[in-house]
Here is the input.
Amino acid sequence: MLSRPENGAAVVAASAEAIAEAGRLLAAGALVAFPTETVYGLGADATNEAAVSAIFAVKGRPNFNPLIVHVADFAAAERLAELSPLAAKLAAAFWPGPLTLVARRTPGSGLAVSVTAGLDTVAIRVPENRIAHAMLQAAGVPVAAPSANRSGHVSPTLAAHVAADLGARVAMILDGGPTSHGLESTVVDVTGETPCLLRLGSITAEQIAAVAGQAVQRSTEAARTGDGLEAPRSPGQLLQHYAPRALLRLDAIAPQAGEGFITFGPNPPAHDGPSVSLSATGDLDEAASRLYAALRALDDQGVAGIAVMPIPRAGVGEAINDRLNRAAAPRVG
Ligand code: TXA
Ligand code: MG
Here is the structure.
């Protein structure tokens, strides 16, 4: 039986029984939050229009922003989308793992229209997280899942983050502990001859280029090569994303009074307010995995501002800086 603690959220340890129950709930049209190697996802049967609509309602997500469909393996992905030789090459190198491929959806995919927000493409990924994989197999349906946070908020890297944002509005939150990568998947459009990077993640542009055997286009470049005003290649990238409540001050050398302080590397400047270290050894992968929890923890302590030390832009540092820049962008509303 599931227990419902104070905040009404059904957080359950991801035992074999709980994973089987999650699969049944998904197949029956309910919403289940689950861990992946990147961030927690808010899942629904991607072929069930009502279930997918509930994702948008629960998150407060604009309906023009399409969802990622999660499947257990390449064969399941092939039933939903036309995967070119380029797509197959990237999938062979990075699936299961934190890579999302945007490809043309097949006419008979059976996907609910709202999953792709009316686009003729679909974003697909095969997560490597053991719990996610077992849940997908138990569900037996493709699972549409955005990050399991309120729209515009920081993505969840702990089950407790999901409970804080969405609480009792989901049937079950499968607790798999902290996610290992901590940043959302790298998103690559493979509808053309050249891979186009739509969202940075822990798989870097250099890694994609090495496997593809060619340079990777960036979404901003793709938009500029079109005639006149072109629709954004990835609608979600338009929105301000990943923002904590507190205002961010980036590349801070030293904290100011009243600020929360996010540090990186050994021997950071002293601070007598709240501070969180992303990595005392200067390890960028560790920093990525801790970033969102750090932002949420300082927000929870009620600081008005958060100063963040410079993070090198090498490797996954580029994705970390991308998320920090979004979180620090002027607020739109
Ligand atoms: O790591 C992740 O990708 C997590 C976990 C749960 O899998 N999911 C996630 O989903 O970050 P979400 O919805 O927060 O971000 C999906 C991104 C959005 O920027 C969306 O616009 C883009 O993928 N996207 C989805 N479908 C697309 C499509 N057909 N064409 C272009 N971009 C698409
Ligand atoms: Mg998201």
Summary: Residues 146-147, 155 surround magnesium ion (ligand 2) (CB under 6 Å). DSSP finds ten helices and 16 strands in the chain. Residues 262 and 308 are 5 Å apart (CA to CA).
